[in-house]
Amino acid sequence: xxxxxxxxxxxxxxxxxxxxxxxxxxxxxxxxxxxxxxxxxxxxxxxxxxxxxxxxxxxxxxxxxxxxxxxxxxxxxxxxxxxxxxxxxxxxxxxxxxxxxxxxxxxxxxxxxxxxxxxxxxxxxxxxxxxxxxxxxxxxxxxxxxxxxxxxxxxxxxxxxxxxxxxxxxxxxxxxxxxxxxxxxxxxxxxxxxxxxxxxxxxxxxxxxxxxxxxxxxxxxxxxxxxxxxxxxxxxxxxxxxxxxxxxxxxxxxxxxxxxxxxxxxxxxxxxxxxxxxxxxxxxxxxxxxxxxxxxxxxxxxxxxxxxxxxxxxxxxxxxxxxxxxxxxxxxxxxxxxxxxxxxxxxxxxxxxxxxxxxxxxxxxxxxxxxxxxxxxxxxxxxxxxxxxxxxxxxxxxxxxxxxxxxxxxxxxxxxxxxxxxxx
Amino acid sequence: xxxxxxxxxxxxxxxxxxxxxxxxxxxxxxxxxxxxxxxxxxxxxxxxxxxxxxxxxxxxxxxxxxxxxxxxxxxxxxxxxxxxxxxxxxxxxxxxxxxxxxxxxxxxxxxxxxxxxxxxxxxxxxx
Lengths: 424, 127
What we know:
heterodimer; A: 424 residues; alpha/beta; FAD/NAD(P)-binding domain; Immunoglobulin-like; 3 domains; 5-stranded parallel β-sheet; 10 helices; 32% strand; elongated; B: 127 residues; alpha+beta; N-terminal domain of TfIIb; CPE0013-like fold; 2 domains; 2 helices; 10 strands
């Protein structure tokens, strides 16, 4: 059962979101909700079945799902609410969240602190404008990874991989394990873009050739990829004529970078750094919008999940501190309301602690004139806090009354004070 | 006996130190370029008995996914990787599967178990 208001709402249940929710709860946030688009928690870790996770956090060499499982188990034991298979449609700078799922229907929720942990997306063919035909058989490496590792089917038999990022190299090994032939890994830069250990254990171990300063010139094939034409590039990454090579294959995987996913951040008025593609953050991972925090690949693309976890925990702690301060502050506030013959009262809200410092003046206007002596009374329900006498009350003339410091205790008991102007 | 220099990259952690390994026959005489003891251990193993962690998937019936990811609890000898993968293809589990369940015991007589990397709960009915 969802609550209407949470201390902390986290958008995204990947490693950053899981850590943020756990960090927030452990710091003392009362109600924490994680909203996740997928049908289960864990994010991209669930398809990263290779090992190498947790060497920093746990001093252990774990597969991705095992790393995620530890956080999922902790989240469950901390009684953190989750809303799965859900889409966040909108977030405002006031931390009002609109979401929809088949479990909850359309819901509108409020958060005292909001954590953005939406992660990132893969760059696609369109973003590097790969020439050639548009046949079936061109996938991002992450899509192929999901097909092979979670859904149980192979996208092809004979592969070329463009880009030497970690996902590309890891998929080269994985596809080899599943009986496919990986003909080539092409990298446009003169250096490896992923980790060297992945070059060793994913490519070198299985004699998969890597060509630096090479890219795909065009894709060949009508219904299905039949080959790609590779080409060498010069120092300015321009193709060198005469170096073309046709490499037969039925599938091209693209491992050409990741982009932080910040559509929701923009809606909330969060300012983005054009260099990282993610929000500007301070040392507590707070964005430019007070109460909105961000962590993980949504901020900048990390190399190791361990650092994402670290950022998530920090972000969750900060979000909880913000929420707790907000809640404390809210409990100290009393609303001012116009009662009999009072149109409005300024200030609208009063901090109860302000009476410890000095008396507080209220100003208002009456609705109708009373040409006779009146009482101006400040009431907490039936209890009178203070009153003063005036000789008359007219809409054209502002009325004021001070709440004295001696009313401090009485005001502590109130959540709302009514001011009325009545005949004596 | 003649000494031979081999350059290798330690894969134990993401740092990926480049090691200059001096080998005499099948014996490691000297390791340079490492930042910690694990580099020495890796070089020794790489020369005498190279091993790798292996991760793959096995089929599972009745679960939220048709596959469960699995991993060797310790690195296995490199030449046995493809034999292990062939064994894994023969396995079919039934949901629910729990993280850490032994999926293959003492695989290929290595004394090493293959474990489930995550929970696979039973597929439940739609709400």
